[in-house]
Write a structure and sequence with these properties.
The complex is a heterodimer.
Chain A (H helix, E strand, L loop, with lengths): L3 E12 L2 E12 L3 E6 L5 H8 L7 E6 L2 E2 L4 H6 L1 E4 L11 H11 L4 H14 L15 H12 L6 E5 L7 H16 L3 E5 L3 H6 L2 E6 L2 E6 L1 H7 L5 H9 L5
Helix pairs in contact in A: 3-4, 5-6
Chain B lengths: L1 H16 L1 H21 L7 E7 L4 H11 L4 E3 L9 H6 L3 E7 L3 H7 L5 E5 L4 H24 L23 H31 L1 H6 L5 H29 L9 H25 L3 H19 L11 H8 L2 H15 L7 H26 L1
Parallel strand pairs in B: 1-2, 1-3
Antiparallel strand pairs in B: 3-4
The chains are: A alpha/beta, B mainly alpha.
Chain lengths: ~240, ~375
């Protein structure tokens, strides 16, 4: 795992005098599941927006999928997938229409979209849902589908912003199985979550507080370093000083 | 380009699948036109008038026949004395009483002057004014007939500007332009602002923004379907007005359609502007309805003439784009004037459009930062 797909060096993002990201430096490798944790307001969203080409860094080096976030945000967009915490499929379109739409937006050929749609529905055992409206599906299915659509075009990196919010434990487990499969195919998974048990599933975890990355290592190493039994404990120790 | 078309197709799917959107797009325009045309019509149709003919000669017969055969009035019972007028009007059936003075023909031919008294029911002021105007107009017409025959006569003549371009005195002539103006604001501004804010609310906007689609493409993709469908609406309304109300476009149809396109574009850019300042659909609906629909109905000259408004409302009206479109469309549709007469209004609409697009682009970009 030596291929760097994200490399950030001294990233600073300011909104007026407010510093949302304060000299962040980290690297993420190909096929890695990278947990990006932090309390609400710690600056996670800002970082994800920069990494996904939505927002420009104030200063610092940011390379994503081999492209510079300052100069080539459009190229970055083509090479990443994204699934946000709210839900990103259209309720009034059918499953197949949603897949066609996102495939088309990412410039995929029609035949390729059809092939992938077929195998995707098969893999999820979704065949009979193909022509149903998204609105008629249970939330768990929707989330799994949204994830599959986000990686439909085989991006180098997929950003998942709290993907499992409001989902039952069984579906969450299945969702993480999908994440593992995706990572095994060589797609880097960059995930934010508030569920600390999920953080344990990640290859590496970073914990942000007040715009800075306070800790970054494998879950096991972090627990050892903070002498904690779980990532949750580590998280609370890091995040608590901010509350005072 | 292909990405863009995929996106536009999706917008059409949204529209065709949503019953409410389809109703607003295709049912409401037709319904409004028919409603204004038939129900809210200010026209007189077969209002009953009674005559108190104190002279009962050839001339008064002719005039009363002319009034009753105009299609606006029908003959009620004939009265024989002044005492009967009050009970007749109180009965509520009779809208006006017309009194011919004694020796009408003799006075008209001998002195060149005879008097017709029109008494209307003032408790219905609109009806009363209209009846008076219509009867006066018919009498004026009668006058000119007489004048043509060499007899001099100065009966009651009352100029009425409204009839100038509207000789058959049809109310639809006023409503069709107004309804087009209103419908376009409704569909374009309201609907686009709703569809964009809906994407924000459902989180799909995020997914679109991180996709390779450019913001401009997203906005254009939102505009194109509504542009096409609104244009279809304009055509439907014009066809309705031509074949249901017998109101053809007097001026150039091409000019009218081109002006409509500009107005649609302007309304769409207003819709986008609304969506950039509102976070939720409710906000967008509120701003569109209260900020645009109401002023369009009340202040654009659609229903109430701007000249009759207190000055301050006139000023407010000056910053409302629909006001200028109403002037354009009335000129082209009813008066049949060419571009030379409406270029100023066209230019103003163009400036509004550019300003709205400019501001929304800026806002959109700031949001992205």
């Amino acid at each position: 795992m030596s291929d760097k797909v994200i490399s950030v060096h001294n990233l600073v993002k300011k909104f007026g005098s407010f510093v949302a990201n304060d000299h962040l430096s980290f690297e993420v490798y190909r096929g890695e599941i990278f947990g990006f944790l932090g309390a609400n307001g710690a600056g996670k969203t800002t970082t994800i927006r920069i990494l996904s080409g939505l927002s420009k860094p104030t200063s610092g080096e940011v390379m994503v999928a081999g492209y510079d976030a300052h100069k080539e945000p459009e190229m970055i967009k083509k090479n990443i997938g994204y699934m946000c915490q709210k839900f990103s499929l259209y309720e009034d379109l059918t499953v197949k229409e949603n897949i066609m739409l996102y495939g088309g937006i990412y410039g995929m050929k029609k035949q390729l979209i059809r092939d992938r749609t077929h195998s995707l529905l098969e893999r999820l055992q979704f065949e009979e849902y193909g022509d149903r409206l998204i609105a008629a599906l249970p939330l768990g299915l929707k989330q799994k589908l949204a994830f599959s659509v986000a990686v439909l075009h085989e991006p180098k990196i997929v950003f998942l912003d709290e993907p499992t919010g409001g989902v039952d434990p069984v579906t969450r487990r299945q969702f993480w199985e999908m994440i593992y499969e995706t990572a095994a195919r060589g797609i880097t998974v960059f995930v934010t979550t508030h569920y600390m048990d999920e953080a344990e599933y990640c290859d590496r975890v970073s914990i942000m507080n007040e715009g800075k990355i306070q800790a970054l290592d494998t879950p096991a190493a972090l627990k050892q370093q903070y002498n904690a039994r779980s990532i949750e404990e580590v998280f609370i120790r890091i995040a608590r000083p901010a509350k005072q | 380009m292909k990405r863009f078309l995929v996106f536009v197709k999706k917008e059409f799917l949204h529209i065709f699948r949503d019953v409410r959107t389809m109703i607003i797009l295709f049912l409401i325009p037709g319904a409004l036109i028919l409603l204004f045309g038939f129900v809210v019509s200010n026209d007189l149709k077969n209002a009953t008038v009674s005559f108190l003919d104190l002279s009962n000669d050839e001339m008064t017969q002719k005039l009363s026949d002319k009034i009753c055969s105009s299609g606006f009035f029908q003959r009620g019972e004939n009265l024989s004395s002044y005492q009967e007028i009050d009970p007749a009007l109180r009965g509520n059936k009779i809208k006006a009483v017309i009194i011919f003075e004694k020796d009408f023909s003799r006075k008209l031919i001998g002195e060149g002057k005879a008097t017709v008294n029109i008494i209307t029911d003032g408790s219905e002021p609109n009806m009363a004014t209209m009846a008076t105007n219509y009867i006066s107009a018919i009498i004026a017409d009668f006058n000119s007939d007489l004048a043509g025959k060499g007899a001099t006569a100065t009966l009651l003549v009352q100029p009425e500007v409204r009839m100038f371009y509207n000789p058959s005195l049809k109310g639809q002539h006023m409503f069709v332009p107004g309804v087009i103006t209103l419908i376009m604001i409704l569909i374009c501004a309201l609907m686009t602002s709703i569809t964009i804010t809906r994407e924000k609310e459902f989180g799909t906007m995020e997914a679109l923004l991180v996709s390779p689609l450019k913001p401009v493409q997203i906005i254009l993709g939102k505009i194109v379907p509504y542009f096409i469908l609104s244009f279809v609406d304009v055509i439907i309304i014009l066809l309705l007005s031509r074949y249901v109300f017998d109101l053809p476009v007097k001026g150039s149809i091409i000019l009218l359609l081109a002006e409509s396109m500009l107005y649609i574009l302007m309304s769409l850019s207003l819709g986008i502007l609304v969506s950039t300042v509102s976070k939720t659909m409710q906000q967008a609906i509120f701003i569109s309805l209260v900020g645009m629909m109401l002023p369009t109905i009340l202040l654009s000259g659609f229903i109430y003439p701007i000249e009759n408004m207190p000055k301050i409302y006139g000023w407010i009206s000056a910053i409302l784009p629909p006001r200028y479109f109403i002037i354009i469309i009335k000129n082209v549709m009813i008066k049949g004037t060419g571009f030379l007469y409406v270029w100023k209004e066209t230019l103003i609409l163009l400036i509004f459009t550019i300003a709205a697009i400019g501001i929304s682009m800026r806002k959109f970009n700031i949001r992205l930062q």
